[in-house]
Design brief:
Layout lengths: L1 E10 L2 E3 L3 E2 L14 H9 L25 E8 L2 H10 L8 E7 L6 E3 L7 H16 L1
Antiparallel strand pairs: 1-2, 1-3, 1-4, 4-5, 5-6
């Protein structure tokens, strides 16, 4: 999977990064203490299921944090091989080319959305095995 867009909100010193588009080559440039490392740390939230500390949340956004908000989200483009794996494992789903992963301030698990595809409860139960399958590969 290749990261194509991401956004971080209410994480440490970042109020809202806005949507950042990523090409094949990306670089973070900025003054010292401007949040470059914090952006990368927010992106690592998409790769881990762990509780986020209250200390990691932006104090200045306490009103917004009373609701569930997405702290980090990334849109990934799948290659042909990955699309084929999904198609084989879940033949009932339409072809999936993009996946959006996100973490919220209320849920320690990485959550996902598949483009504009609606997935019913039966398909979603099967996707839990997809999560397990990706950990094995």
């Amino acid at each position: 999977m290749r990261l194509r867009k991401f956004r971080a909100r209410a994480y440490r010193c970042i109020h809202d990064s806005g949507e950042i588009t990523v090409g094949d080559l990306a670089a973070f440039i900025g003054r010292n203490e401007s949040g470059k490392t914090t952006i990368l740390q927010a992106l690592t939230l998409l790769n881990r299921d762990e509780q986020i500390s209250e200390l990691d949340l932006c104090d200045e956004m306490s009103e917004e944090l009373k609701e569930e908000i997405r702290l980090a989200e990334g849109e990934f483009e799948m290659n042909e091989y990955e699309m084929e794996i999904i198609k084989e494992k879940f033949p009932g789903l339409p072809q999936i080319k993009k996946i959006k992963l996100f973490r919220t301030n209320r849920n320690p698990k990485v959550q996902y959305e598949f483009e504009d595809i609606e997935i019913n409860e039966i398909q979603d139960q099967g996707l839990n095995s997809w999560e397990n399958f990706t950990k094995d590969s």
